[in-house]
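Protein 1 of 2
SEQ + STRUCT:
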Amino acid sequence: MRLTSEQHLDGGVLEREFTLGEIPGILWTPASASPSTPAPLILLGHPPLGLRKMYPRLVARAQHSAADGFATATIELPGSGDRPRWPAAEQARADLRQAMAAGEPVSDEIVDALVLPLVDQAVPEWQAALDALLSLPEIGGPVGYSGGVISIGIRLAVVEPRVSAAVLFAGSFVPRALFEEARQVSIPLHVLLQWDDEGNNRQAALDLFDVFGSREKSLHAHLGGHAGVPQFAGDAAAQFFARHLK
């Protein structure tokens, strides 16, 4: 892990860009974080649109979390930003757009081609990033995961014991294989669902929530489209992490 830049944001938040091998990432730490009082860490998930495009939303989430005493971090997903393109994934995205534009059902084959390779590569990269982040003296456990791609969150919740709670954003297509993995999830979950999300199959999202194996899980559904998440939804997610990471 190599730190490449840093700047101070409002509220004393320290933003540091880093690279993990060839993978770019960003770490935000609150002013309260120090070797004597290490901050709990939240991994910020996001769709594969590129860190630069997602930055305004990510930094807002990071500053909100810093106000609650949490450090946050994110990494560039495979095939996104300046990372090498994935022709197979780009073809799967094109097939997905074509099916949705035609009002046709999205086949399991398209979903598998789009999501499974991403999960298979991204989750080990998240784990490597977690190794590096937790080696910093001002960062400590416990660790949470927040955001999408929900399939990445599912796999991390199953294979990474250091992740002890997760806020998941319903809204990405989930392969049938990940439904089976969801049965193995046991950590506390807080799931956000936009009821009128134009890019999400509502019933599939409800079915996924139903199969999660966690004894503590809650579904928070709000009217509106994908970009219409109300401000108070973030407040409820923050309260969830305050209960489980402090």
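Protein 2 of 2
SEQ + STRUCT:
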Amino acid sequence: MFKLDDKFTEEDLSKVTEAVESNYSLRPNDALLLDVFTNNGERLVDPNLEMVSNPGQQQQLFKDNFQYIIQSDGMVTFPMIGDMKLAEMTLFEAEKAIAKKFDQIYKGSFIKLRITNRRVFVLGAPGGKVVPLPNEKTSLIEVLASSEGLDLGAKAQNIKVIRGESVYRINLSTISGMKETNMSVEPGDVIYVEPWRRPWLETLRDISPALSIVSSVLTLIVVVQNL
């Protein structure tokens, strides 16, 4: 999978340093959780029902309904302040813009915004895994550790991070390589860890059914001859 070819060569690989600098920008289909406080910290809006005593199972159902989805046009609708366009903003920029809106109603608004559907996809040697990203800055090492790490069947020197039209090659086989490629992942990244190929094992696996049949036939012949 994901081999280089004539249409995508070594020269097309992006430099990892280009990926470290940027902050994640909100995009359509992001699911948001909003916490609003007034007086620079006193809770004002409680979408997570943390102020409700003993809500039981209804708390989780009600909490799920208060995830705000960014629509295809970049707009999202919040209670009290209505529609806002948040696509292409960083979380910090979005929090400042929302706080400015709430300041028209309450003074000293403090906003905490979280993305709940951030995830990356790990393929190859560790198997197919979907790894959630709880933090805005999650390193590649954290993601690989969450997907059971790299065993002896993985090529640590040939890890590809595919991000949109950019592909980054990561080398974790040496300490210096790890330090040079200490990058943060972004939601939607595809991380491919190339497995080591063992042709003799693959050949043995392919011919094992035939060997089983031959073995069965030989066993039957021996039994018949001894009757």
